[in-house]
Request: fold
Amino acid sequence: MLINQVKKLVILCFITLAALACSKDGEPVIVGGELTESMSVTAVVQAPEPEISAGNQAFLQGDFNQAISYYETAMRENRAAAFYNIGVSQYMLHNIVAAEEAFRSAVIEDPNFDEAIMNLVAVLAEQEKTMEAEQYISRLVNKRKTARVYVDMANLSIKNGSSAKARLYYERALEIDRREPFVVSNYANYLISIGELDEGERILNQLEVHDFAVVYNLAYIAWLRGDLNRSFILAEQASTMADISEDGNNKLAVLFAMMKRYNNEQQALRRLIAWNPKVDYRIRLVRSYMHAGDMDRAQDEVAGLSTDHPDDADAIIANYDVMIARNELTEAGRFIRESYQRVSGDKLFYQTVRHISLYDFYPTEARTMLTAAAQQDTPFVNLARTVYALRENNYPVAEAALDRVPEDTYNDYYSYRSFLLLKKRLYSAAEEFAHMIDITKPEYFWYNFVLAWNQHDTERVQELLATHSADYVTATRVPTFTYSLNPVAADMNLTFKPTGVELAAQLLYPFFIEPDEMYPFISLGYKFLKENESAPALAELKNSITYSNAVIENNEGVALLMQSDYEGAMAKFTSAEPVLDKDPFVQYNIGLVEYLLGNSVAATDRFDRAIRLNRYIVPAYVGKGIIAQHNNEPTEANHFFNAALTNADEYLGSGSQITLPMIVQARYLALLAQNNSDRIMDFAERERTENNFSKAILLLSEYLQTKDQGLLAQFSDTNIYRSHELAYLLNLAEGPQAELAEQPWADRNTIITGKYLYGMRTGQLTEQYMQPYMTNQDVLIRMVYLSTLLKDRAAGLRYLQTLSRIDVRYAPQYLAGLYYFIWAKEFPNAEASYTVLDNMGNQSQELRYYTMLYFLINYNQRRYDALVDMYREAFPRDYRGKLMEAAKSFQNGESTTFLSQISELLRDEPELFEKMPLEIDIDRF
Reply:
């Protein structure tokens, strides 16, 4: 954005004219210099002819038309001086073309009339005819080898894009006079223009006199460096200086506009209009009011402009734009049609076609106009073809027409180019053009917003939301948007994450049932829950626990679970459940398997059952807290972790003779999940005997604080449940150098996760690399998600097909398939995946979330609205529900609500875009 703006703002360098016209023997004498001292031209010259003297007298009195009459009479006696003075007078009347013609005639009459040459150079430069201006001033280089002539040549060379030639002329000027402030100042400006800001600023600051040019350029340097406050202070100072010229004031207005200091820009423009009330300045003042959102003053200003210049195309367009900004669409359409019929011209032809294309339901009239103009190949007619083709969704025709339009033809070029690039998802290319769209047009906000959103530029999104009110940006026209799924790792349980909660989840273990130890514990639980429990009931409980074969099945299930055979473990636990229906450990073990299989809703239900049977099953609270944290409900998670601590403290303080390790260990896991290192240390210090588990948790807690890799070896040596596995995975995830090694103690999950971590860090994650596990359902599920994340369509489909051949009843494959098919926009397959899971009774949070994504992207309004409402009710604090609710507002055209919801989301979730899977597509222009 900055580069484009710099292209539009030239460093302030003055073409020195008056200084060359000082009186010398035999040369013309300048009179009325005070009238032109802030302008680019030299004032009129004195001559012996009475008509010239009379003309000069009228000139000094400000009657420039009368002066011209006198000068025309003097033509027969002194044509060169007469033409010259006519040129100056026409310039004072702001007739720059007539001034140019007169100065040319003066030079033709007298090729050695240096003052006429210099004034011709000035008016040519003012009209951007810099190549011709350079040709004229080069006549003086050999004749007047002064520092100032060389500076003027250098400045023109800059405008003509010849930096090397400019440096040569500056060096010649400096050889003649290194102390002349004008020479030094312009050289400093040149250095700034080529990016040597430090040296340019140093030279400017060393000048004894800081005139307008110096202060302005210091303000410009500050703006280039992003120091807007200093830039504004210096620009304000420059605006009050006595030597400010029209050209300088013009550039100052541009600088204020770029700083979005619209009040100051308006003051500068009003000064310009007082000097020279030309149409361009007045239109810029209208635009400035519009940029500031002051539509009433914009309307007042444009009304006067239209009265003074009713047939000026640019004034008509400014009036039309104010009407559109005020949402007066019918009036604007009538006005632009009538104006085109009265004035004609390509600009108004384009505006009429544009209005019909954008705002009329049936653009038949636009098609008729374009058919009549079929043989024309002008920039504005091609712009008209572009906008009509965009309306008709004919993007190849639109692009072909736009390619024939020069970029600087009209600001709408940037809107059309941005749209076409956004359709192709060429965001970096679109960004350059989107920044150039007129800020008063709705497309400026929406295209830049879509770019910032899709590029996950949180700062830019917040900036746009803060500076553009919803009412302002949607006052006239909003493009049509749809969504695509941009897969993110946050949506997938791909791998291990080194956080307190994740480490606690890795250490959450199943329970063997040891009847002799468990009976007193369970009895105590029943005693607390039911004080009147009878002895026969307790005896019956003991009998069912001690002698049932179900105990054996439970313990076999634990052994399978510890080998990562989740399906085998679940079969054993569910077989034992009918017999051990009052055993909280079986319910807890089933809940743990459900959690490991990704069924968080079912896992929570089982943990709840275990707690209802005995509230001292403390690990169940930890499990519920971990699930709540995964569901982005930190307050709820903290509640469950605190419940684990409370019940552990109550049991340990109950006077029971049975001190179960699971109570103590679960307390440590809850504190680890909370990252509460102080309380972990406190509990460890209060234990009377050496405890490997507390030591291990202390080491893990310290590792999370310091990331000291040396602590992991000590942690591994504690030999607690999964200590080797966790140390190995942490080294792979965060160690200075990932090293993959097959370990005899590693279970299936550790081997797979280790390979995955290593592959992700080294970029070697391929199907071949994951052998011999490519027939394992868990591995294949991960590879489906990974393929989706890497947007490898063919690989994802291949893994899903392999999964279906292994077991068509395996629910996780349909969940992974649903996400994959949503991304691939294969909606029939997505619907089939959703239907299978629904028929299986799957109610997991992941399924609910994926289904919301499906109905949003496939756009089923009724089903989507219902799902969003249910999800928000079930998981009120989850950012995903809030995001879906905002997307719902956006899809329904509720722009004000949408912008408010996104602002709130970004406040609550600063890293939202790292976890956000929605990409916004501009569907229709």
User: Anything to note?
Assistant: The chain is about 70% helix and 0% strand.
